[in-house]
């Protein structure tokens, strides 16, 4: 058996011993690639490598607030592809929902904007959408919220919604750009991220899944855990400081495969497949 397989069974034993009560999970785009949603930074398949057609100064500009205010069209072209409703949760999402149903999930911090955590049935109060989501939207000028159904229509057509809030002026409406409440570069993370950050320090087991840990402040979350707390990485590649501590476990490869191994070691394998197929 490989080192990671021995370690997976050690992690499973720890959970099954009852000593683990607070699992904190930190996720990124890699847990949704199996659902058909591309990640950002994978060299061939990632969104940033495939945005050339959108006429951007650099790929990250698609999520840059000042660029968006100049030219919102590339973002809306992308939003058409990424918009929730077309995709289904992966085995990894369902595994996190099992942690929740077994009262082991202390907090999930996700960078994803695809809403697949909610779709997998993870209770909303256990989810921190650190980079926001497509669930709500508002005007970038006057901050007035914008109707969900109208938003969906605009996104489907790939065109840019504009604020309809009444103003006192001659034109009568604000007409500012409407943007989903996704955290762009140049914007603050939601309060919930900072409010729940102490939960990461309360973890007695950390699972990091499908993220390159390139974007701060999210990237520092795995370092909030106490030093003696085991941290397990399910990812294609080694990232951040994972692997630098004695009890870190690296499960390299696709996360659904790694998660299935852990579920099997826990005796949850059948339940995982059953819930996933529902
Ligand atoms: P990235 O694309 O930066 O990283 C995804 C990570 O998941 C990489 O390390 C991949 O190797 C790995 N990966 C891909 N598919 C996988 C799979 N099936 N199994 C396991 N690992 C896999 O995505 P994030 O870390 O989520 O911001 O990116 C962070 C933020 O950067 C995003 O939230 C986004 C972007 O700018 C916004 O959307 C506002
Ligand atoms: Zn407005």
TrEMBL record:
Transmembrane segments: none
Superkingdom field: Eukaryota
Amino acids binding Zn(2+): 139, 142, 163, 174
Active-site residues, record numbering mapped to chain: 131 (proton acceptor)
Residues in Deacetylase sirtuin-type domain copies: 1-269
Signal peptide coordinates: none
Family per record: Belongs to the sirtuin family. Class I subfamily.
Protein known as: NAD-dependent protein deacetylase hst2-1
Source species of the chain: Cladorrhinum samala
Parent-protein start and end of this portion: 371 to 648 of 749
């Amino acid at each position: 058996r490989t080192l990671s397989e021995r370690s997976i069974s050690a992690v499973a034993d720890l959970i099954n011993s009852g000593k683990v009560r607070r699992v904190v999970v930190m996720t990124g785009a890699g847990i949704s690639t199996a659902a058909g949603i591309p990640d950002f930074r994978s060299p061939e398949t990632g969104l940033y490598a495939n945005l050339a057609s959108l006429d951007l100064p650099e790929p990250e500009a698609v999520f840059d607030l000042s660029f968006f205010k100049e030219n919102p069209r590339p973002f809306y072209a992308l939003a058409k592809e990424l918009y929730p409703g077309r995709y289904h949760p992966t085995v990894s999402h369902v595994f996190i929902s099992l942690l929740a149903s077994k009262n082991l999930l202390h907090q999930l911090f996700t960078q994803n904007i695809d809403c697949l955590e909610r779709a997998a049935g993870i209770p909303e109060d256990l989810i921190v959408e650190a980079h926001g989501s497509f669930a709500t939207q508002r005007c970038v000028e006057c901050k007035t919220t914008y109707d969900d159904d109208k938003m969906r229509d605009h996104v489907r057509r790939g065109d840019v919604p504009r604020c309809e809030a009444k103003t006192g002026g001659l034109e009568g409406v604000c007409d500012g750009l409407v943007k989903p409440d996704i955290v762009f570069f140049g914007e603050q993370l939601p309060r919930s991220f900072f409010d729940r950050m102490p939960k990461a320090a309360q973890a007695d087991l950390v699972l990091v899944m499908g993220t390159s840990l390139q974007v701060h402040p999210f990237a520092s979350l795995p370092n909030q855990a106490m030093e003696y707390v085991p941290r397990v990485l399910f990812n294609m590649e080694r990232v951040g400081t994972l692997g630098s501590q004695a009890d870190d476990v690296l499960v390299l490869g696709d996360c659904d495969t790694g998660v299935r191994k852990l579920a099997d070691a826990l005796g949850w394998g059948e339940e995982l497949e059953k819930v996933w197929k529902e």
